[in-house]
Amino acid sequence: GIDFSAQTGTATLDGTGTTTGELLDHYEEGTFTPAIEFGGDAITSHDSRYGRYILIGKMCHITVGARVNVAGAAVGGVTIVDLPFTSASSNHVLPLHISSMPDTTQTMYVGVIPSSQSHIAIKHLKSDGEMPTMDEEQWASTQGLGDLTGTYEIA
Q1: DSSP for 23-59?
Q2: What predicted TM-score, i.e. pTM, was given to this entire model?
Q3: Fewer C-beta within 10 Å: the chain N or C terminus?
Q4: Which residues, including other chains, have CB under 8 Å from residue 99's CB and lie 6 or more apart?
């Protein structure tokens, strides 16, 4: 790996931080194939789907896209499964862009990666701070899903 220990200074500009490591020991780029589930039932017919990741140390940056216009009989919360790595022991919230939803809806969705998991639950972020899970009816109103991007710590 690349050793940054020869640098001078501290972890923060004001000197209050603590350095926990100065070795960049892992870098990786790749692709993965995410899948969509409604209420735990896998959707077998996707219009399109893709996943890309960049792993730097223990931080994984992902870009996910998936389109499913017909869910069949599956009902329930929307989940993107088969992420490339299991998350660390903390929840991660990722921004979600739904390209087919008009801006006039004033609706915001986020992706939540639960602690020690390899899936993203799609949540509706409400103005009161509540985050109920997006369901198949809300999914249908978006005409599929746009793009999700974010960074999470891996186990």
Answers
A1: EE--EEEEEE--EEEETTEEP---SEEEEEEEEETTE
A2: 0.79
A3: N
A4: 146, 147
